[in-house]
Write a structure and sequence with these properties.
By secondary structure, the chain is α/β, with parallel strands linked by helices. It has a domain at 103-117 and 229-407: Rossmann fold (3-Layer(aba) Sandwich), CATH 3.40.50.1100. It has 17 helices and 12 strands. It has helices spanning 39-42, 47-57, 73-76, 99-105, 125-140, 155-167, 182-190, 202-212, 226-232, 234-242, 259-273, 293-299, 326-335, 345-356, 364-378, 400-407, 429-439; strands at residues 5-9, 33-37, 95-97, 109-114, 147-151, 171-176, 194-198, 218-220, 250-254, 282-288, 339-343, 387-392. The strands form 3 sheets. Strands 3-4-12-9-10-11 form a 6-stranded mixed sheet, sandwiched between helices. β5 (147-151), α6 (155-167) and β6 form a beta-alpha-beta unit. α5 (125-140) crosses α9 and α9 (226-232) packs across α11.
């Protein structure tokens, strides 16, 4: 079978363009775009047949179908030629059964989707593989793209630079100076990206990128580009696949630019439309209290949405006050009976450290998700028998300064309730035994 996909307006304007068109907003209303799919054609294959196909491909060696994204190619970007796919075997990340953590807070069925266990250490690989593959398809057809550009708080630049380097396509990244971790900064530098550290925040970088891409030689890689969402939605399909095609009760996602919560919702909706799942989970978007425009809108019943000036947060990857995908996220949350929760700096730091003590090694964005979970369990929104999936978006090794600062009690305003400093001792057995006894 052959399938089709196209660009369309997310606000309902009636037109279609090829996926390879270099366009990011509706030319009629200015709204964001989305990728449309021929669902009628996709439904000619039964839900059971899709499950068998995806299981047969999953984590195998036939390129590119062993990828967690490209194993679902028909639901993502069916028109890209396989020779133009740029894959680094993204997806296929593990589900961590957080048994000890779950029991400590009264949950029997708590799981962490470790999306940061990927090539660049970030879930962004899921979307960037689709976007860079599209760029290669455009270039192969004679398109004049000279570089792919993004604004980033760290992870987008890491992923984009890696995939562009693998494809031999130049990349340009704009970062807020001194607002991302050294581990995140070194990734685009190492991959040869033109790396520009600007005296502004993410929103300021994004404003400059939008000016840059008015020149069609520069291709936009931020989540305003709907191709990113297409790749990221496969995390929902993979989660269900890992549970033998059973949907969970709850999925909790950190929210910054808000493309990811929209993507997660779209993945579940597509599975429902193709009869792969029978029910939808409830979604939670977790925001840092210092960058919380969606949370404030939720408190108002989503009647309005106003950007905020994001204050500094330990969860630097979601320090975004004017998220481009806000309307998409609100629409998805309404359809999923969604919840928005926030976490203070103290809450996210403690939640991250508490989880680490049960075998995890969490990024601060995952700390936000964990803190939101604790609140929702405490107020009984989430029940003890519910199956809950937390999406961890980045590898904790990118945030070593955050970890060290917490355990050495050097994070301003943070009380390190789960701190664990090394004990310095003289070189003798009695001192060692004494320290073990004191700690026990």
């Amino acid at each position: 079978m052959t399938y089709d996909s196209w660009l369309q307006c997310s606000e309902g304007c009636e037109w279609r363009l090829e996926v390879t068109e270099v366009i990011y907003r509706c030319p009629e209303c200015g709204g964001l775009l989305e990728v449309g799919h021929d669902v009628d054609a996709l439904r000619r294959r039964s839900g059971a047949a899709w499950m068998r196909l995806f299981d047969d491909r999953y984590m195998r060696t036939e390129y590119p179908y062993g990828s967690g994204v490209w194993g679902k190619k028909e639901l993502v970007y069916p028109g890209v030629r396989n020779e133009n796919v740029v894959s680094i075997h993204e997806g296929g990340s593990n589900l961590f059964w957080a048994e000890r953590l779950g029991k400590s807070i009264g949950l029997d069925d708590l799981w962490i989707k470790q999306s940061g266990n990927s090539h660049s250490g970030s879930f962004k690989d899921l979307g960037i593989t689709v976007l860079v593959s599209a760029v290669r398809q455009i270039i192969s057809g004679g398109g004049g793209i000279k570089a792919v550009v993004c604004a980033s708080t760290g992870d987008t630049s890491a992923s984009l630079s890696a995939y562009c380097a693998a494809a031999g396509i130049p990349s340009v990244v704009l970062l807020p100076r001194d607002k991302i971790s050294p581990a995140q900064l070194i990734q685009p530098i190492s991959n040869g990206a033109i790396t520009l550290a600007l005296d502004t925040d993410f929103d300021g970088c994004m404003a400059l990128v939008e000016k840059l891409v008015e020149d069609r030689r520069f291709y936009l890689a931020n989540s305003i580009n709907p191709l990113r969402i297409e790749g990221q939605k496969t995390v929902s399909i993979e989660i269900v696949q890992q549970f033998d095609w059973e949907a969970p009760d709850w999925v909790i996602v950190p929210g910054g630019n808000l493309g990811n919560v929209a993507a997660v919702g779209l993945g579940f909706l597509m599975m429902r439309d193709l009869d792969i799942i029978k029910k939808l989970p409830r979604l939670v978007c977790a925001q840092a209290a210092n960058a919380n425009p969606l949370y404030l809108s939720y408190l108002d019943g989503f009647r309005s949405f106003e950007p905020v000036v994001a204050e500094q947060t330990l969860a630097s990857a979601i320090q975004i006050g004017n998220p481009v995908s806000a309307r998409k996220a609100v629409s998805i949350l309404k359809e999923f009976d969604g919840v928005v929760e926030q976490a203070t700096e103290d809450e996210l730091a403690d939640a991250s450290a508490r989880a680490d003590r049960t075998g995890l090694f969490t990024c601060p964005q995952t700390g936000v998700v964990l803190a939101a979970l604790l609140k929702l369990v405490d107020n009984r929104t989430i029940g003890p028998k519910d199956r809950v999936i937390l999406i961890s978006t980045a590898n904790g090794l990118k945030f070593v300064d955050f970890k060290v600062g917490y355990h050495t009690e050097q994070l301003p305003g943070i009380v390190s309730r789960f701190g664990n400093n090394p004990v310095e001792l003289p070189n003798d057995i009695d001192s060692v035994l004494g320290a073990i006894k004191a700690a026990g």
